[in-house]
Design goal:
The chain is an alpha/beta fold. It contains 12 helices and 10 strands. Helix 6 (117-127) packs parallel to helix 12 (325-343). The longest helix has 47 residues, at 2-48. It holds the Pfam family Nucleotid_trans.
């Protein structure tokens, strides 16, 4: 009896020990599986939100299930986390046309303020004929953080260029030292654009785009430039040029020309890019490199210096021959008013009469 009881007890003990071992193994497997899944999730989380997971706190996160995870809807996640900063070349690639052409303008805080020139610039694209689809090709090079912040609220292709040597945020009065630095920084930047293989239209932000200008570009010509005053011959470099609107094809000739232009500032330290261009355009080196220049008729590319004679043909209007932000704003608003009135007409205008320049005529 005792022997049988002892044998039965021994069997139960072995069974229980065996079940305990099996139970331990199952628990171990479950724990390993759980930890493996947790680690995988954490790796995936780390990949998706690299700036939010502190790997040093991994133990505390596991030990404390109640520890709050980052709020993905909160303002703690910066725009840089969601949208990584693109290089200048990547922005150019995103904005370029099929033939690698981009439209470039520059912007500082003074021109980027609400209801300032940048708003008018964008509005002109929206109400122009055939210009709406060109906005996606516009790259705005911002000269200070505030300009970049405002640009990013209104437009897709914005790039902040570092200008640590000079503060370009305020209004830069024509021909002042900071104005000269800003103009030459622009020439340097455009040289880099050409070197990266992109053709470009450069446009000042105080130019209203009323029609698609691409059909009016010359089929030949490496370097094409607008004029303050046009005297009838697109090949004549003695037209009174204006650097606010240029079309340049990327090739060895144009790159060498821009490098020469930028370097020539050292010979004329008190002159801006446009005046230096006038000094170097007849230099033998220009003929040696063989760069082909063309100059735009103000009928198509007008401005306050010489307004377009025909609103049925005009592509752009520039607030040139005008010093002062307030004056430019006043008169460019009149340009857009004139354009809206023109669009409301049922028949082409026979005689073009602009409301501008008005304030820009004042000393």
């Amino acid at each position: 009896m005792s022997s049988s009881s002892s044998s039965s007890s021994s069997s139960r003990s072995k069974f229980m020990d065996s079940g305990f071992v099996i139970g331990q193994k199952e628990v171990t497997r479950i724990l390993i599986l759980f930890l493996g899944l947790t680690a995988s999730c954490l790796v995936l989380y780390k990949t998706a939100y690299p700036q939010r997971l502190d790997v040093n706190n991994l133990t505390s996160l596991l030990a404390s299930p109640s520890s709050p995870l980052p709020n993905l809807n909160s303002s703690e996640i910066s725009p840089e986390t969601i949208k990584p900063k693109l290089s200048f070349k990547e922005i150019l690639e995103n904005a370029s046309t099929k033939n690698k052409t981009v439209i470039i303008t520059t912007l500082n805080q003074a021109w980027a303020e609400p209801n300032s020139l940048f708003d008018l610039f964008l509005e002109s694209f929206r109400i122009g004929q055939g210009t709406q689809q060109l906005l996606k090709h516009v790259v705005v090079v911002c000269l200070d953080p505030k300009a970049f912040q405002r640009c990013s609220q209104l437009h897709t292709n914005c790039y902040h260029i570092e200008t640590s040597e000079t503060d370009f945020s305020g209004e830069k009065v024509y021909n002042t030292p900071d104005y000269l630095k800003m103009m030459w920084r622009r020439i340097e930047l455009l040289t880099q654009v050409l070197e990266m293989g992109f053709n470009f239209i450069f446009t000042d932000a105080d130019i209203m785009w009323l029609r698609d200008p691409f059909p009016r570009l010359y089929p030949d010509g490496d370097f094409q430039m607008a004029c303050d005053r046009f005297f009838g011959n697109p090949y004549d470099s003695d037209n009174w040029v204006n650097g606010g609107f240029t079309y340049v094809r990327s090739n060895n000739r144009s790159i060498e020309f821009y490098k020469f232009w930028h370097k020539s500032r050292l010979n004329y330290p008190d002159l801006h890019d446009q005046d230096v261009f006038n000094r170097i355009k007849h230099e033998p080196f220009i003929s040696e490199i063989g760069v082909q220049m063309r100059f735009f008729d103000t009928v198509y590319f007008g401005g306050f210096c010489q307004t377009s004679r025909d609103i049925n043909l005009v592509c752009t209007m520039h607030a040139n021959c005008c010093i002062g932000l307030d004056k430019k704003l006043h008169d460019l608003n009149l340009v857009l008013d004139d354009w809206r009135k023109y669009l409301s007409l049922s028949e082409p205008v026979q005689n073009t009469t602009w409301s501008v320049p008005m304030k820009c005529l004042e000393d």
